[in-house]
Amino acid sequence: MDYLAPATLDDAYRALEAEDARCLAGGQSLVAMMNLGLVSPARLVSLRRIEALRGIDLQPDGSLRIGAMTTHAEVAALTVSAAGPALLAQTARVVAYPAVRAWGTIGGSVAHADPAADYPVALVAADALIEVSSASGTRRIAARDFFRGLFETALEKAEIVTAVLVPPGAQGAGAAYEKLSPVAGDFAIASVAAIAGRTARLGVGGYATTPIRLEGIGVSDDALLEAGRALAASSEPSDDHRASAAYRRRVLPELIRRAVRTALIGARA
Ligand SMILES: Cc1cc2nc3c(=O)[nH]c(=O)nc-3n(C[C@H](O)[C@H](O)[C@H](O)COP(=O)(O)OP(=O)(O)OC[C@H]3O[C@@H](n4cnc5c(N)ncnc54)[C@H](O)[C@@H]3O)c2cc1C
Fold first, then answer.
1. CATH number of the domain at 174-268, please?
2. Distance 101 CA to ligand 1 centre (A)
3. 72: helix, strand or coil
4. What's the pLDDT tens digit per position in 209-225?
5. Quick check: pTM over 0.90?
6. pLDDT tens digit sequence for 135-152
7. Which candidate among 161, 191, 229, 251 keeps its CA 20 to 30 Å from the CA of 54?
8. Distance 229 CA to ligand 1 centre (A)
9. Cβ neighbours of residue 207 under 8 Å, at least 6 residues apart?
10. Residue ID of nearest Cα to ligand 1 atom 6
11. What phi, psi does 229 have (nearest 5°)?
12. How far, in Å, is the centroid of ligand 1 from the Cα of 60?
């Protein structure tokens, strides 16, 4: 197996043209899959030396641009009040545990598209954009269109996730991420990311193969529980080693209610 560590994006694009070449970011998912013999790439292209993939910048429109190689720990340490960025920071704080957060990156999590991962849910709720680049140029894809299926994304051959762009969210809105997992630090059985003011916009994750986005939901307890029941009745939740489909349907309405309640408390504060 080849290992390359280019210092520029242009060199990385070239390196990724080789057959069966893969990016290596924090290695928290890829190395685990290699150890289990699930994948054996012919070439690993480490993104670690590429300065253009680092850093968190506030853009003129109030959105946050988070470089793909930003670790979960760096996102978790953000102190921001706008709802969209605050949602990402809260989400990062409950990804796995400190050792994984010190190495794992937002670009790696997004590209990996694990159905139980946390960031995709928050990015869909925040109406974030995923920035991807290759030798042919840069595209920005709405998070809701980026996650296509089980470990499947809109990324094409030799494309790199370069950043995620998180809009501020409506003035006065609050944000919360509610995660139900078998034990603290584990992947989600189901999770809900909420941005809420007069109405709520939600991402639901862990629940199906891709995050589900709901918007314009009323914020009374009754309306929230009803939205959860309606989604549970009309969707096909995953049935796997973490939980049955029936269990996921059962817990969803209350998870939605809690996420929005917490977001509204945050908005008032
Ligand atoms: C014990 C454990 C517990 C975990 N718990 C959780 C959890 O609770 N919630 C959660 O969300 N995640 C969890 N994770 C996953 C963790 O968040 C990983 O960090 C993340 O999924 C992958 O990020 P990475 O930087 O390590 O990517 P890598 O493992 O390096 O790469 C993952 C995949 O993405 C590709 N890739 C990486 N970066 C890019 C890029 N910039 N552009 C294009 N492709 C790219 C790689 O080629 C590979 O296919 C856990 C992991 C472990 C080991």
1. 3.30.390.50
2. 10
3. helix
4. 999 999 999 999 999 99
5. yes
6. 999 999 999 999 999 999
7. 191
8. 32
9. 190, 191, 235, 237, 238, 248, 252
10. 96
11. -65, -40
12. 29
